[in-house]
Amino acid sequence: MLSCSSGSVDDGGFASFTTAMPGDGDGDGDGDGDAETGDTGTTTAGPNCGDGVVDPDEQCDLGEGNSASGQCTPNCFIAACGDGFVYEGFEECDDGNPQNTDACVGDCVLATCGDGYVQDGVEECDDGNDDETDGCTSECTPGTCGDGVIQAGEQCDDGNADTSDTCPACQFAFCGDGYVQAGVEQCDDGNELDTDACIPITCVEAFCGDGHIQDGTETCDDGNLEDTDACPSSCEPAYCGDGFAQEDVEDCDDGNNIDNDGCSNTCESQCGGSFSVDWCPQVGTMEQFTRCESVQNGGNTCINPEIRYGNVTGGIPRQHGSNQYATWCQQLGFSGYAGNVAYGPRDCAAPKGGLFGCTSYDENNIWHWCDWQDGPWYNQQLDYHACNSTEITSITCTP
Q1: Contact present, 163 and 185 (Cβ < 8 Å)
Q2: H-type alpha helices, the chain
Q3: pLDDT single digits (tens) 302-355
């Protein structure tokens, strides 16, 4: 405590200096003799403060030496943190209150990020360290997904809000997370249902032939696009009149229930191993038919055969190395090919077009007639019209 000396005045009238909390006049802590304290927490000066004599209600009195920035405050108390006076060289600030949420905290130092005190209106958090992964960053803001720092509960953090990359919502991307990963997934609906529009595990859009029956869209799905089994590429159960000839069940299927058109309304061939000027189904194909301009040799020879595929007519068969004449004859109900075929010029002007035999395009692994230009032509226009005298003008089959 600053006090008057009973000795020489050469020492300025003081023997020692210590610090004490303001408001304790006699130092016993019981309040008697303590000076009055104002609303700000700063102790009010006694009536004789400043006369250079330490009275009972004073801790020190330097007279004119009392200072707001010195050892003895203007109210004659020894400088202490919380007295409302900034003691020069010892304190950075002193706002006269014990609050640690304002600009002056702790032992009268200026508030800073990392001091362990959350400053109102300035900081959102302050945990007193510079660990970026504990939920409060070194900038005193809460760790969030997208800040580039992996916080507790995060598997990754690539510093962006893009949910189409490998780290959506700060978790490693996977099929079923509900986010469509660019370049990897077609869809991702966040569930494991295989009956909706997005297939689980693979995250591809549902389609007929994927092996999963899509609710409200498909009645069957056997995982293939074969049109000769019980579930054709329509993903509806096969039936007579659907346009698909079911293997070992139907001779033909022309997609209608009309009798006397070469394929009966019970899907039986009405040609019976004889050429006709009417359409006769090529059994085993998908709606491919043959008719003749005229018939000779008791129905065994067809003159200028024409092919129909679905609802498109005008197909002109031409000479080609992949033509399977025996198969063609058998599809029309004959036992085989007699070995007689002739070629010559025929009209291929649009909408007609040239054909060749194949086992791909519209029907895989089934021999049928294909568009000479680009292959497929089921219910499509024919594209090749440059006939050059190698068109089939007659063929004879074996009864």
Answers
A1: no
A2: 325-331
A3: 999 999 999 999 999 999 999 999 999 999 999 999 999 999 999 999 999 999
What's the CA angle centered on 298, arms 297 and 304, to 5 degrees? Answer: 55
What DSSP element (H or E) covers 263?
none
Q: Domain-by-domain residue ranges, the chain?
A: 1-110, 280-398
Report the DSSP pairing between strands 301-303 and 294-296: antiparallel
Measured in whole angstroms, how far is the alpha carbon of residue 168 from the centre of its chain? 8
Q: Edge-to-edge, what's the strand order for the sheet holding 301-303?
A: 294-296, 301-303, 391-398, 336-344
pLDDT at residue 42 in the model: 52
Contact residues for 126 (Cβ-Cβ < 8 A; gap 6+): 113, 114, 115, 116, 117, 118, 119, 136, 140
* Phi, psi of 142, deg, nearest 5: -65, 140
Residue partners of 280: CB distance under 8 A and separation at least 6: 262, 269, 270, 271, 289, 290, 291, 332, 333
Phi, psi of 179 (to 5 degrees): -120, 130
DSSP state of 215: T
The answer to whether 108 and 94 are in contact (CB under 8 A) is: yes
Residue 288, beta-bridge partner list: 309
Examine residue 317 and say whether the peptide bond preceding it is cis (omega within 30 degrees of 0): no
Of 297, 302, 298, 326, nearest in space to 316 by CA? 302
Report yes or no: 78 and 1 within 8 Å, Cβ to Cβ. yes
Other C-beta atoms closer than 10 Å to the C-beta of 387 total: 19
Contact 164, 175 (CB under 8 A): no
Specify whether the CB–CB gap between 45 and 57 falls below 8 A: no
Q: How far apart are CA 231 and CA 17, in angstroms?
A: 102
93 within 8 A of 85, measured Cβ to Cβ: no
State the amino acid at position 81 in one-letter form.
Answer: C
Instruction: Kindly report the pTM of this predicted structure.
Output: 0.52
